[in-house]
Amino acid sequence: MVARYGSEVDLLDDWQRIHRARLRRRTDDVVCGDLVFLEPTQAAVTRRAKRHNQLSRRDGTHRLRTIAANIDRVWIVIAPQPEVPRFLVDRFLTGIVNLPARPALLVNKWDCIDPQRPSTFDALLENYRCLDLELLHVSAHTGYGLDRLRTAARGSSNILVGQSGVGKSSLIQSLLPREELRIGELGHSGEGRHTTTTARWYESEGGAWIDSPGVRDFTPEIGSATELARGFSDLAAHAGQCRFRDCTHQAEPGCAVRAAVANGELPARRLEAWHELLQEIVAGARVRPGDRGTR
Ligand SMILES: Nc1nc2c(ncn2[C@@H]2O[C@H](COP(=O)(O)OP(=O)(O)OP(=O)(O)O)[C@@H](O)[C@H]2O)c(=O)[nH]1
Ligand SMILES: [Zn+2]
């Protein structure tokens, strides 16, 4: 399934042709990336195949919305403008590793970055240096890094996620010049305009690309500190040495995670992000007793 427009969908067949079809009530939960069965005479979707994963987010009214399904790789797109919201990358990473899918960081608008001048943007990237995370610098405008991106993405289904205005649609447009995507201008203060309103699947010889609507925030669908720890392998690497097995790395004595922050082995921002997400899990009363630790 390529894209959804209310109760109608665009489907891609094995010959790369697009068909418009209707959803029946039983198939109302179909999203971009789903494999579906079609009743051709009525152009109706009768059933969808089982998914291997799905990426969901809470909307403004806290309802869970599934953005896309059957994703191998999630590229978190960031750019010097618009400014990256605090902990957005940490939030995405935690959600992605729990899908599970492979996360990667894609820094777009490389043409706007002066490598000679250290910036707050470099400081942000420093926070993720301890993670075994693929990081690519690209420019949709100049084409810089796009060959490396194509190679890294080959043979898999790839979704671009991130704020509005970071250039997700522009990147797919540059990767697939024959497609026609809508690109939005940035507002006066550098904010995006939410030009993409529904996820869309673009098939190419080298793999598939999914463009997704820009988000302001992202709340990962996690219910335990064990799942949280999956998104914080850098922090979890130290947690084994904490004195208490269920250490939450706040005020406990003998906390190896805080010690790692103090001696510069772990960025303080990562521990702050951990605390914010742990707080949200606790507030949602979704942590089982004895499941607060990182191990
Ligand atoms: N300088 C520069 N600008 C870029 C680059 N890529 C995208 N832009 C600009 O950034 C703005 C937003 O681009 P879009 O591709 O619409 O961003 P998006 O992330 O798809 O936004 P939404 O669809 O709203 O989520 C446009 O003005 C683009 O021209 C780049 O590599 N360099
Ligand atoms: Zn600790």
Automatic annotation (TrEMBL):
<feature type="binding site">
    <location>
        <position position="255"/>
    </location>
    <ligand>
        <name>Zn(2+)</name>
    </ligand>
</feature>
<comment type="similarity">
    <text>Belongs to the TRAFAC class YlqF/YawG GTPase family. RsgA subfamily.</text>
</comment>
<keyword id="KW-0690">Ribosome biogenesis</keyword>
<keyword id="KW-0479">Metal-binding</keyword>
<dbReference type="GO" id="GO:0046872">
    <property type="term" value="F:metal ion binding"/>
</dbReference>
<feature type="binding site">
    <location>
        <begin position="108"/>
        <end position="111"/>
    </location>
    <ligand>
        <name>GTP</name>
    </ligand>
</feature>
<dbReference type="GO" id="GO:0003924">
    <property type="term" value="F:GTPase activity"/>
</dbReference>
<keyword id="KW-0699">rRNA-binding</keyword>
<comment type="subunit">
    <text>Monomer. Associates with 30S ribosomal subunit, binds 16S rRNA.</text>
</comment>
<dbReference type="InterPro" id="IPR010914">
    <property type="entry name" value="RsgA_GTPase_dom"/>
</dbReference>
<dbReference type="InterPro" id="IPR027417">
    <property type="entry name" value="P-loop_NTPase"/>
</dbReference>
<comment type="function">
    <text>One of several proteins that assist in the late maturation steps of the functional core of the 30S ribosomal subunit. Helps release RbfA from mature subunits. May play a role in the assembly of ribosomal proteins into the subunit. Circularly permuted GTPase that catalyzes slow GTP hydrolysis, GTPase activity is stimulated by the 30S ribosomal subunit.</text>
</comment>
<keyword id="KW-0547">Nucleotide-binding</keyword>
<dbReference type="InterPro" id="IPR012340">
    <property type="entry name" value="NA-bd_OB-fold"/>
</dbReference>
<dbReference type="GO" id="GO:0005737">
    <property type="term" value="C:cytoplasm"/>
</dbReference>
<feature type="binding site">
    <location>
        <position position="247"/>
    </location>
    <ligand>
        <name>Zn(2+)</name>
    </ligand>
</feature>
<dbReference type="GO" id="GO:0042274">
    <property type="term" value="P:ribosomal small subunit biogenesis"/>
</dbReference>
<feature type="binding site">
    <location>
        <position position="242"/>
    </location>
    <ligand>
        <name>Zn(2+)</name>
    </ligand>
</feature>
<dbReference type="Pfam" id="PF03193">
    <property type="entry name" value="RsgA_GTPase"/>
</dbReference>
<protein>
    <recommendedName>
        <fullName>Small ribosomal subunit biogenesis GTPase RsgA</fullName>
        <ecNumber>3.6.1.-</ecNumber>
    </recommendedName>
</protein>
<keyword id="KW-0963">Cytoplasm</keyword>
<keyword id="KW-0342">GTP-binding</keyword>
<dbReference type="GO" id="GO:0019843">
    <property type="term" value="F:rRNA binding"/>
</dbReference>
<dbReference type="InterPro" id="IPR004881">
    <property type="entry name" value="Ribosome_biogen_GTPase_RsgA"/>
</dbReference>
<keyword id="KW-0862">Zinc</keyword>
<dbReference type="GO" id="GO:0005525">
    <property type="term" value="F:GTP binding"/>
</dbReference>
<keyword id="KW-0378">Hydrolase</keyword>
<feature type="domain" description="EngC GTPase">
    <location>
        <begin position="69"/>
        <end position="216"/>
    </location>
</feature>
<keyword id="KW-0694">RNA-binding</keyword>
<feature type="binding site">
    <location>
        <position position="249"/>
    </location>
    <ligand>
        <name>Zn(2+)</name>
    </ligand>
</feature>
<feature type="binding site">
    <location>
        <begin position="162"/>
        <end position="170"/>
    </location>
    <ligand>
        <name>GTP</name>
    </ligand>
</feature>
